Amino acid sequence: MSKEKKGIKIPTPWRIKRYYVYIAATMVALILPWIKVNGNHFFLLSFDKLKLHLAFVQFDMQELYLMPFLLMMMFLTIFGMTVMGGRVFCGWVCPQTTFRVIYRDLIETKLLGLRKRIKNKQQEPDMNKPENKVKKAIAIAIWSVLAFIAGADFIWFFVPPEDFFKYLGDFNNHLITFGTVIGIAVFLIYDIAFLKENFCIYVCPYSRIQSVLYDDHTVMALYDMHRGGHIYDGHEKKFSKQKDLREAEPNSECTACESCVTVCPTHIDIRQGLQLECINCLECVDACTTVMGKLGKPSLVTWSSDYEIVDQKGKTKYFRPKILGYMGLIVALACILGYLGTTKEHMLLNVNKETRLYSTKLLPNHKIRVDNAYEFLLQNTENDNMKFYFEVIPPKDIKGKITIAKPNKAFRVVPGIKKKKIVVLRTTDTLVKNDRKDTIIPITIHAYALDKDGKPSKKISVLRHTTFVFPKTAILEKAKE
To answer: Which structural domains are found in the chain, ordered by start?
Structure first.
């Protein structure tokens, strides 16, 4: 998309493209918590129910080993974006920038007219005028409502909306949840309405580490001194007027209109070179593109790299080894995360043997019954009530059977509740003969859920290894007495 001005083709401003990104990101953030597949959310870290939902798959808190991989992917993505595009995250994705645009450009400028123009961000409104004070109060009131919505939306990734609105009726028992929403809202009101871009300049740690990640091919907003002229000598400004600049550098093209300065939200002069305050919003690129376009010339401020603009060594290399390395690490972590997600167990089971090794009893048929008791701690991690049961898998070299004496039928387990079950394994066969000591026999417990037809489920099935202690011969002989 582009428009014509006096025969000069001026592309769609970066500002408009950023607005599209902001709208898309806002819609995703607001809508995503409401989307469920099979009762699971795309991302939900519920400390209330001790659950993690990731990509519409539910995990128990014992499976939080997935979170480090997710966090590493997030940070590597941000670092990779910085290496390639500078602080493009700050200008295009960061909630701080998005909220400031909503408050300053939409509410203060477009809705209330408190600010005269979006393109002049340096001139603050005259707050000595009574009408401006009223407009400021209205702007803060409107933003306060949006801040509470933003705070609630943040909480929805930890307390799902269906529970959040249910808790509203029981406010006193959920003070931490709603206190967090209020705290976030209060911070956003102060941050966006009063702290403003000072957060980006002085508070945000990202600006302090970005320079470590930059290289010669990092893309950022740059002023072409070779064409425009040298406005600054280090930190000292040499020229404020085009006439003075032309006298010193006759071929300089900068008009000294300072449109790139007045439009900057962090109040810097891009002509001074790379600065930590620059958030790559590209407002200065838009401003210079418009001014120079009217003169039939390309913009003096472009989104490019030192390699191409400052050093003039050639074209910017986007897919260089460093970027490919970041991409490779992100893909590798995504594969590991995906693999771990597929190995998820749909029920949790801990098997603990009781302190008593075994018990024996003489049966009427003169056989000796040997019992081993266990404590099973299990949890149904699905969303529906399910029936569970067990079976014993003995080693192949053991002759005889080990059966389940207790429980003798399938039992129901509700979702999210840990259930303790006493399980007794029994045999009446002589599994081994050992005159010297008791024999520890390794066995496998197969725990499974029953499907609607009463058959073992292939999906909800886990194996646990434990032992069955069989008494030595002297104990068996004594039991017969």
So the answer is: 1-34+65-344 (no CATH), 347-479 (2.60.40.10)
